[in-house]
Amino acid sequence: MEKCFENGVIGEAMTIKLDAVLPEYPKFDDTKRRAPDRGFRLTKAQTQLALRNALRYVPEELHEKLAPEFLEELKTRGRIYAYRYRPEGRIYGKPIDEYKGNCIEGKAFQVMIDNNLDFEIALYPYELVTYGETGQPCQNWLQYRLIKKYLEQHDIDSLYIPEILENLKKEVSFTRVNKDNEYIVRRLTPQECAKLQGFPSWWCSDIGIDEPTYKDITEWRERFIERNNALGKNVKPKTDNQIRKWLKDPYSESAEYTMWGNGVALPCPYFVLSGIEYFSKHNE
Q1: Most buried one in 77, 103, 218, 226, CB count within 10 A?
Q2: pLDDT value at 62 more than 50
Q3: pTM exceeds 0.70, yes or no
Q4: Distances from the Cα of 98 to the Cαs of 107, 110, 147, 184, 229, in angstroms?
Q5: Helix and strand element counts for the chain (H, E)
Q6: Which residues lie across from 182 on neighbouring strands?
């Protein structure tokens, strides 16, 4: 196949490069969530541009092998994720000392990126889509590998880029720990909120009812009526079809956040009530 992109100019500009060794294609866990197919509607020129944009990250000697793979991803997934470059197995935020790097800031960035790609946290981990479908740590696995190499090799002086930090501040809140250091504070994921409240991370997974019974619909109609009465709302009761449709897919991230925020940390009352039970039985 003809080379899709000449890397001369890019090669001179990039100080951090991917190796000219093709990684083994990783195995995927079929039980993990996958992003839906985005559809393939590109023209021939747009397809060529998409391939060039992806191939610019890799050495030219790998273009002939990777171009057909990237094209297949484009046609079957709607975009190029470069799955071959995903590291094998689970990605998660490890203890900071286990990361390579010349400064703690570079290691901290790696922890943050890997944490967002954890199977328990990311919405579509293989497609690098974070919880809530609010963004991606990287556009594809080529970028992931390049960013990791960059963070491993640079020190604090070369990592400190004011323009990048200003952009980050628009997305996340910062808290100053002391006058010399700043740490990024991000929003907790619903799964992390569940764990903090003493529940398993999967507590709100698969809560839909594919075939609601008459009893299910009746019970939920009564609950909706009770809620509206408690809130002082005079609204028309939901129809059977409306309740049936909702029961098939009742989950929303905002509702889960509300539930955890309005709830209690289960270990606390469990500890208190267990103590009461114990002393009620052993009180002399």
Answers
A1: 77
A2: yes
A3: no
A4: 9, 10, 17, 20, 55
A5: 12, 2
A6: 176
